[in-house]
User: Fold this.
Amino acid sequence: MVAVGYGFFDEKKELSTYIDIAADEQQMLARFWRMIVEVRRRMNNVITHNGHNFDLPFMKRRAFVLGMRVPTLRTKYNKWEDIFLDTMVEWGSGEWKAYVKLDHLAKLFGVQGKLEGVSGADFWKLLRDNKVDLAREYLNSDIVATAAVAQKMFLL
Assistant:
């Protein structure tokens, strides 16, 4: 079982979350990359926290392992395209290898943080142990926290 979560803002700037938990990793990745291409086509943004250094490379590598073609999303300077805004990169303000946990930023800004008692490092265990509801709750809290931090940083 694999999972990925997204948040979308409507015209009223209200957040909706979408959690994709699937048995078929290739199908889930195909949906993910189609969504990214559609966001790019609409000239919108993808906002992540540590997405430049973890989520995007991980999803791209998994697609390669599964024999999937992925869109070219990097500039000639080997940076992620401008559609990808990363709250950790923005927080780092040019400091090389600056790292900050999403939950720490959320608490600093006084907004909802991540789900208590669940670590991103252990997320795969939730799926392995078929704790789908807790996995869904964790992903949802991650999306909400990222969006709230991005709003506080004026990225939305």
Remarks:
- The radius of gyration is 15 Å.
- The mean pLDDT is 93.
